[in-house]
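#structure-requests
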Amino acid sequence: MKQLLEANESLERFKDYQFGLIDPRPIPEARSANEKLFENPHGVLGIEVTIPAYAQKCTLGNIDPQHSDGNVDLAAIEVAQTLDVPPSHATMITVRADLDAFGAMALIKYRANGGEVTPEIKARIEEIAKTDKFARGGWPGKTDLPSKKKPWPTSGGTSETESLAGIAARVMDFKVPVVDRIKSMEEYLTLGTEPSSYQDKVEAERVDMIQALENGAIKIEVVADGNIAYVESSHRAGTSLGYSQAPIVVAFNPTFKQGPGDAYKKYTVCQYEGTWADLVAVKNELAQLEEGWGGSPNIIGSPQGKSSELSPKQVIGTVEKHLKKKI
């Protein structure tokens, strides 16, 4: 009980840092709001700021080992374990409301307040890092899709493992202020707790997803001689569904929503491990067709904040051209 009280006191006591989430939409209102994030005279630390123009504005640097530095074996939350903490009153910002980016923010805040990285915290960091950097070993082969009897696929996904699904849903909930999501992330790292309502929410979403699979609302097609799974779905488990069918996934979300803005068409291309395709070459070629494609050697995506105009055939064909090995 004493440890729990001390940890909760720690969450409330340190309030100096500010936190922000960049709006990637290419509209004046978004740009104006984003510019205000960089006005802090105490400095701005970026965490996975994957938009170059904004990354350059991070006066305290940008922790982005996978996307900017090309180090797919290192997650931002791992860097945050030993990083020199930013000065008081500094701002931490990201483009990515996910476990790795928000987890890194929460960990830095916790360490700045004198918190030690215990073995329990380190284990949670490693679990998040493992899924974020795709360090899951070789692709296990084709497995069954989720079903009512077996709702969670064994192949996993970048944030769709059952143990992390609840806290992942919490940090991605744009209706909740960023500072509250950081607080929840710190509670998860230090105590292993998460808002119970989110676990209930993801279980309900999983039921809806299985129903959508059964009635054909989620489209999954295996192409390129079994090497690529094309998944068309608005459900965030699209990549994990694809990995149950092939080692490379082209996921198309026709109604992707990031924050309070309008939904738009979004592609995500990823591979279970970095040996299947040259996604850097894929990204560069697609960027010639449509400005704004970006990402790392293991996961790339279409422009942030606006709909992609490319067809699935164009994206799949480009990925297939750059396969490095085949099943």
